[in-house]
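Saturday, quiet lab. Running sequence design on the C-alpha cells for the scaffold JK sent over.
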C-alpha cells in the first residue's frame, strides 16, 4: 500500500543522534520542506486554526486522529488508511485483501466513518513520488473504477474524467499531471481533466523533477521527442534518447550511435567526440569526458579544461566544483573563489546562498558574495518562511535569508509557546517573554502545527498542550527515533509516516 508523510511541521532531530545523521538529516529537511511547498501548506501560519487528520497505528490496526489527538476513525482497519489531503475528511480505506489473488476492496469514509462517494467498483487515492522517495497524494483527485475502466472524480464526487480509460496514474515527480491510457497509448491531462498531450504515445515522462513546461514523449516506434504544455511538438520524436540540460535552450540527443547537442529548433550545435553534455546555462555547457568535467561554449570553444570530478552551476558566474573528493567554488574563469575543503556543497536558490558541510558536525553558509555568514549544525532550511535554523553552542538559533539573527518569537510568530533555555534546561515562554513552563526539561522541541510540544525528562519523552499543561507525562523512550513529535498522547513513528502510542 502507498504511504504518505502525514505530518506538516518538521519534527525535531534528537540531539543525541545529531552527529551520526546530520548530512542525511539536512537532505531530509529539504525533502520535508519540498512536500510542504507542494501541498501549499504553511504549518505555523495555520497553527491549530483548522482541523487536520493523521493516520495512526496501534495494536496491529489502523485508524485516524485529528490535530487535537482525538480519535476520528477508531483503529480497526488492517491496512493503512490513506489521507490524500490532511485538511479534508476524505479517508480511503482498503479492506477484504486477498493475498493469494491480490484482490482488495476500497471505500471512502468521512469523519463520522460514513461511506461517501459511492457508486464505483473501486476508489483510490493517486500516489506520487520523486527520486528521493518523497511520497504524496494528488490533491482533490481520486481514481475510480467501473467494470474494467477507470476515471477521475474530485473530493466532492464531481466527475473529472468518465470511466473510459484502461489505466490512470500520476506522472511521477510532478504534481497535477495525470497519465491516461487507452488502447495501448498514453496521454496527459491536468487536475481539471483538461488535455495536455493527446492519447497517442507509447510513453510520456518528465524532463526533470518539478518541471512541467515540456515533456519527453516516446512514439510507438520507440523514438523520443518533446512536447510542450500546449500540446505543440517542440522536437519531433526521431531521437533514440533526449537528455534535458536544465532549460529549454539546449538538449543532448542520441541517434544511430551519435551524440549531439541541439537547440530547441532541432539545429545541431555540436557533435560529441566522446563528450557527455550535462547542463547548459546561457552560452555555456558543462561537459564530461574520460571521467573528468569541464565547460565549453555552445559553439564548441573550451572554457574550462576537463579537470574536475564534478561541476554544478550555482548562480551568476559561479560553479560548485569537486576535486580529489572535496568541494569548492570556481568562477567561469576557472579561478578558485572558495577553497576545496568541504565534504559536500549545494546552492539554495530560494535564499541565494551556498551551504557547505566542512565536517560531520560543522556546516558553513556563504552568502551570494561568497562570504561566510554562518557556521554550526544546520538543522532546517525553511524556504517557505525564509529562515535557517542552526544548532550552535548547545542551542538552536534562527536567521532569516539576510542572515539577520531572529528570535523564535519572530520566526514562529503564530505559535503560543516558544522554546527557551536557561542553565542547560529547557522551558517555554510566551510572545511577551513570560515564562509559561519552568526550565525543568533536559530536551524539548518547538511547537508543531497541531499546537503540541515534546519534552524530555529523565531520559523519556512526553508532550505539552498549547497552553503549557501536560498532555502526556514523559514516559516514552525515543532513543532510537530520529523524529520527536507528538499529537496529544500519540508520537510520530520511527519512519515519520504515522502516529502511534
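Result came back. Writing it out in full:
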Amino acid at each position: 500500500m502507498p504511504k504518505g508523510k502525514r505530518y506538516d511541521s518538521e519534527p525535531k532531530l534528537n540531539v543525541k543522534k545529531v552527529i551520526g545523521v546530520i548530512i542525511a538529516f539536512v537532505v531530509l529537511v529539504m525533502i520535508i520542506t519540498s512536500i510542504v511547498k507542494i501541498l501549499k501548506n504553511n504549518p505555523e501560519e495555520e497553527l491549530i486554526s483548522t482541523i487536520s487528520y493523521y493516520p495512526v497505528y496501534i495494536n496491529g490496526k489502523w485508524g485516524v486522529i485529528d490535530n487535537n489527538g482525538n480519535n476520528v476513525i477508531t483503529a480497526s482497519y488492517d491496512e493503512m488508511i490513506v489521507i490524500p489531503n490532511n485538511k479534508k475528511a476524505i479517508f480511503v480505506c482498503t479492506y477484504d485483501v486477498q493475498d493469494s489473488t491480490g484482490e482488495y476492496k476500497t471505500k471512502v469514509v468521512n469523519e463520522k466513518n460514513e461511506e461517501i462517494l459511492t457508486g464505483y467498483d473501486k476508489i483510490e487515492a493517486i500516489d506520487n513520488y520523486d527520486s528521493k522517495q518523497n511520497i504524496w497524494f494528488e490533491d482533490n483527485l481520486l481514481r475510480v473504477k467501473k467494470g474494467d475502466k477507470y476515471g477521475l472524480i474530485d473530493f466532492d464526487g464531481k466527475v473529472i474524467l468518465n470511466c473510459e480509460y484502461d489505466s490512470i496514474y500520476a506522472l511521477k515527480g510532478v504534481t497535477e499531471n495525470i497519465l491516461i491510457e487507452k488502447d495501448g497509448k498514453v496521454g496527459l491531462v491536468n487536475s481539471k481533466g483538461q488535455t495536455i498531450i493527446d492519447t497517442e504515445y507509447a510513453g510520456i515522462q518528465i524532463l526533470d523533477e518539478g518541471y512541467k513546461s515540456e515533456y519527453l514523449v516516446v512514439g510507438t516506434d520507440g523514438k523520443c521527442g518533446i512536447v510542450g504544455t500546449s500540446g505543440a511538438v517542440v522536437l519531433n520524436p526521431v531521437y533514440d534518447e533526449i537528455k534535458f540540460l536544465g532549460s529549454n535552450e539546449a538538449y543532448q540527443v542520441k541517434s544511430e550511435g551519435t551524440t549531439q547537442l541541439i537547440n530547441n529548433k532541432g539545429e545541431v550545435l555540436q557533435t560529441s567526440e566522446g563528450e557527455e553534455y550535462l547542463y547548459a546555462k546561457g552560452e555555456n555547457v558543462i561537459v564530461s569526458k574520460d571521467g573528468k568535467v569541464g565547460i565549453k561554449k555552445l559553439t564548441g570553444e573550451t572554457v574550462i579544461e576537463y579537470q574536475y570530478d564534478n561541476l554544478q552551476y550555482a548562480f551568476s558566474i559561479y560553479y560548485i566544483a569537486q576535486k580529489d573528493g572535496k568541494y569548492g567554488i570556481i568562477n567561469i574563469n576557472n579561478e578558485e573563489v572558495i577553497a576545496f575543503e568541504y565534504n559536500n556543497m549545494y546552492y539554495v536558490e530560494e535564499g541565494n546562498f551556498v551551504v557547505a558541510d566542512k565536517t560531520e558536525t560543522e556546516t558553513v553558509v556563504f552568502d551570494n558574495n561568497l562570504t561566510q555568514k554562518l557556521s554550526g549544525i544546520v538543522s532546517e532550511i525553511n524556504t517557505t518562511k525564509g529562515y535557517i535554523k542552526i544548532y550552535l553552542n548547545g542551542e538552536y538559533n534562527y536567521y532569516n535569508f539576510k542572515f539577520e539573527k531572529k528570535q523564535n518569537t519572530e520566526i514562529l510568530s503564530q505559535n503560543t509557546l516558544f522554546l527557551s533555555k536557561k542553565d542547560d534546561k529547557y522551558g517555554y515562554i510566551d510572545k511577551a517573554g513570560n515564562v509559561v513552563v519552568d526550565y525543568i526539561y533536559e530536551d524539548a522541541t518547538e511547537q508543531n502545527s497541531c499546537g503540541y510540544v515534546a519534552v524530555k525528562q529523565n531520559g523519556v519523552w512526553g508532550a505539552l498542550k498549547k497552553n503549557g499543561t501536560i498532555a502526556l507525562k514523559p514516559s516514552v523512550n525515543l532513543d532510537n527515533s530520529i523524529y520527536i513529535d507528538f499529537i496529544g498522547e500519540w508520537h510520530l513513528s520511527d519512519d515519520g509516516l504515522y502516529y502511534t502510542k
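Notes for JK: Residues 1-49+385-399+413-501 form one domain. The radius of gyration is 26 Å. Ask whether to fix the surface positions before the next round.
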